[in-house]
Write a structure and sequence with these properties.
The chain has 112 residues and is α+β, with helices and mostly antiparallel strands. The chain has helices at 33-36, 47-54, 65-91, and strands at residues 4-7, 12-16, 21-24, 42-44, 61-64. The chain has a single domain (4-91), classed as Beta-Lactamase, CATH 3.30.450. It contains 3 helices and 5 strands.
């Protein structure tokens, strides 16, 4: 049975079948989200089918679709923040006497 989702950037609006589950391996601290996370995430039509698969894949956890969505979103946001900070750092000249701005968008000010 196929699993279908209706999602927005912030929430899962619908899951069918209602008992769908996912395998999940918590991502490592790496910029390669596909290798660390995406390649190990699978949808299953039921918790029972998911547990059967997981019995042969010891490193996988079984979670409901909503919890997996939250983990994936948090991971994506962390990678985006790291990329933005990395990009801002590349644009800040060395020894310029300027602080790097925080991700929150704070303005830089000269050191005293």
């Amino acid at each position: 049975m196929p699993v279908s989702l209706t999602v927005t950037p912030n929430v899962i609006q619908d899951v069918a079948p209602a008992g769908a589950a996912m395998s999940l391996i918590l991502p490592q601290n790496t910029p390669d989200i596909r290798a660390a996370f995406c390649c190990h995430v699978h949808f299953f039509a039921s918790d029972a089918v998911c547990h059967d698969w997981a019995s042969r894949h010891a490193t996988a956890d079984i979670v409901n679709v909503h919890d997996a969505f939250a983990v994936g979103r948090e991971c994506a946001e962390r990678l985006l923040r790291a990329r933005v900070c990395q990009t801002q750092g590349a644009q800040t000249p060395r020894n310029s006497g300027m602080q790097r701005a925080a991700f929150s968008g704070a303005r830089t000010t000269p050191y005293s």
